[in-house]
Design a protein that fits this description.
Two copies of one chain form a homodimer. By secondary structure, chain A is of the alpha+beta class. Helix content of chain A is 51%, strand content 8%. In chain A, helix 1 (11-23) packs parallel to helix 3 (67-75).
């Protein structure tokens, strides 16, 4: 059976739980205590040298880290990852954008605040940088969603799953208010009523 | 004809030039003066709201940003992006890892230093953080390449193209010395002798 090294507070891990549920795939969940350093211990680093969850371990022992690569793997051959090159490219475009321009700002601030990490001099200055970049990312999303119901291919895909994960909890991240983004809020509601949706805490 | 909004100093843009050359696809190149703010002007933001190069504009007017999404688009259906799900997943895993754990550290430091950006209080502290994370990323690569000739699928793929782009110029980034990484250096040499290789300046 598939094994998911997981953490219930992680939006990246939630993407994978949500996707596994949509596919109806059974799996064993191993909750990792990130705050206690569980993902930085040698036994876990031997599985994922990057020291992060989520990590999927397949039946044949293959180890697959990186939440959006896991989404693409689990979606391949389904409607959630289009096969035609143009739509496939746009789905990937938003997956990479999420990991580069959205997650390092919105998710990292949420992590620092909700996990009460030490506020070093670097982090104190980084908060302002990340807040500005997070607001810019929400602006890019709002513009796109004003003209589109979903991020790519004219329908619900893993691009929406990836961007939903940390956007719907952005207000936990200190300073991200979704009130000025009506198109984002309408899209969040559309994602939440897709078949076989589950909340981040499930 | 395909249009590439490009910058010759950008490793992300180089990935696309290298891939277009490998495919033998003709294209029109538009050099963007990043230092002069060319990618932040309204006319370019209308093409890519993220304000970054590379941006590919296809014959039908489709706009595709995100270097690794462009690689996947151009590689789809070729040996450079495996079709079987397991190898496909590992290629994507390394593409996402490159953009999350490698590029923001090694490429950003190179950019700050070679483009002589203003050293704000935030950037001065961020340099130490990025240098440590860059060294950690090189360690992950060295471990992987000690046991593997290429990053995924047992052969040269777009995962190698993506990681080559900024690794082979890491020493321009202030403080990254590749001497302690013999497996990385051997892999760089293997990549550089693949068919239809071109240097970053071409």
């Amino acid at each position: 059976m598939i094994v998911l090294y997981d953490n219930l507070s992680s939006g990246n891990a939630y993407k994978v739980r949500l996707m596994l549920h949509k596919r109806g795939l059974p799996y064993t969940r191993i909750e990792m205590d990130i705050d206690a350093g569980a993902t930085r211990r040698p036994d876990f680093l031997a599985l994922n040298p990057d020291g992060r969850v989520p990590l999927l371990v397949l039946d044949d022992g293959t180890k697959l880290p990186e939440s959006n690569a896991i989404l693409a793997y689990l979606a391949k051959g389904t409607d959630l990852l289009p096969e035609n090159a143009a739509d496939f490219a746009q789905v990937l475009r938003w997956l990479f954008w999420e990991q580069y321009s959205h997650e390092p700002n919105i998710a990292t601030l949420r992590y620092w605040i909700t996990h009460k990490v030490e506020m070093t001099a670097y982090r104190k200055l980084a908060i302002e940088d990340k807040r500005a970049r997070g607001v810019a990312a929400l602006g890019v999303m709002e513009t796109h969603l004003t003209a589109n119901d979903f991020f790519a291919a004219g329908r619900f895909t893993i691009a929406d799953i990836a961007l939903y994960a940390y956007t719907h909890v952005a207000e936990e991240g200190g300073g991200f208010d979704l009130a000025p983004y009506p198109a984002i809020r309408a899209w969040l509601a559309r994602v939440a009523v897709q078949p076989r949706h589950i909340p981040i805490t499930a």
